[in-house]
Amino acid sequence: MRPTSPSLPDRTRRATDTLALLAFCGFLFFAGIQLLGLVGADEPRYAQVAREMLARHDWVTPVLYGQPWLEKPPLYYWCAMLAYKATGGVSDTAARIPSAVISCLLVIFVFVWARKFRRGMQLDAALITASAAMVIGFGRSASTDLPLAVTFSIAMLCWYGWHAGGGRHLLLGFYFSLALATLAKGPVAVFLAAVIVCAFAALRRDGKLLVRTLWPPGIVLYLVVAAPWFIAVQRANPEFFHVFFVQHNLARFTSNLYHHPQPFWFFLPVALAALVPWTVFAVAAGVDAVRDWRFSAEQPAGEEDLRLYLALWLLVPIIFFSISRSKLPGYILPAIPAATVLLADSISRREEEGAKPAAWMILLHALLCGAMLAAAFIVPFKLLKVAMPKSVIAVAAALAIITIAMLWFTLENQGYRILRFATLVPVVIAFALTLKGTLPAINVLQSERPVEAALEQTELGRIPDIAAYDVPSWVEFGLAFYRNHRVVSYANQEIPAGAHIVVAAEGSQRELEYLLPGRKVLRFGGFPWQHLDFYYVTKANSGN
After folding, report:
1. Do 136 and 213 have their domain in common?
2. What range does the domain containing 423 cover?
3. If DSSP codes are grouped into helix, strand and coil, which group holds residue 141?
4. Which pLDDT tens digit goes with each residue over 439-460?
5. Measured between alpha carbons, how far is residue 302 from residues 109, 160, 166, 289, 361 in Å?
6. What does the alpha-carbon distance between residue 175 and residue 18 come to, in Å, rounded to a whole number?
7. Residues 365 and 322 occupy one common structural domain
8. Cα separation of 128 and 277, whole Å?
9. CA 191 to CA 170: how far, in whole Å?
């Protein structure tokens, strides 16, 4: 008997869902990716490590300025090396392609997973995940946080799929993805997964679940994928164990060695901002899941315990990193897909029940979306510290009011079934405005790409030796990437004996002359947007 082919409505929906995924992923992760140069200290540093590994044809030891750089595992570096090869050379755009591609992989996997295990919510789950603020931001960055978050999230979805009866191949997927997550950022992935699974088993009073999870073929697969690099890098660099495990994992968690102190509650506002524009409904879904955990824990394994699992996956990373002495926003990125899938599940359940959102939820959601659109207009002017024309203020206010009114009336009348579409409209508009205004402003204020371009326009700026004085660390690392040459720091007493350029804070000439007795210090330009001056310093014991 021939298998029944999909009905026309099913085929049509599948086609429209696929187009929606491709369109949103292409827009949110790739559109205008070239508009913003690398920012911060980490992006140019990671991109430079990949460049030097590629130049050395070394896929084992991460290297920065010719020296081993053993802070992070190699998954991002490997991906960036492949991107450099695929695009025909090193560039900041190529350095960001791995995160954009991996973000698309996450969105597609969420869609496929939800279609199998929670059919009906798949498009909501995928597009809500794609449009969460933190996913968009890190999905367009050259960082190790996004590869960790994506591989960890795929691992956790695979585990639940196996638990829900999806077959042993999903348990293999769990171990395989967890191995990749370990190669992305280290043992934290295994620790978080273990805590989440153990907590879930404990709340369900199912100790045998842990025994079944510790499946020998899966453990072997994990070791086959993850262990070879750790063994190879340790053999090539005997200091690796101490540098990576002791300094950059244990010490980073237990001390303020790397100067990222924040209060215990730091990740609460970070998580709320990370989920914009879905924050209001995501928080409500999380509260419902925690409130109903007793009911969920007492049910047989199935879709009812999905909320408990997702709530644990959301809470464990936030609580764990809140205890850490060192805190950065990207640390909780692995928890965000749990919140977006939990929200999609909540929307699906509410639709099935015929429920409508509470008036206060609709109002807060509408206000948040309206504020998001207004901010997309206003932020570039605030960043550049230029006066806003009254017309801009009027347009921003009008757009915010229209957005609030539209969301109020559509959600009040149509309820949850229109939530995704009604919210994605302001997301698209806000992101388009961000591409047009905010990213160019950030490029001028935070990226060293325009600084390097300003240097290249001067004859003295082409001198290869360059130093930094009294500037943020991202200036050093950014210029080093764009010049492909290490930038030494006067703060570390790395003062070149030969003639060189100094990029310094505005008005530093007298301080430099004091630090460099007998040497001429000549200002030959600057970059006022970042309050930088360019100086030419003659070689030691020379008047030239």
Report:
1. yes
2. 359-445
3. coil
4. 999 999 999 999 999 999 998 8
5. 20, 10, 11, 15, 29
6. 28
7. no
8. 9
9. 20
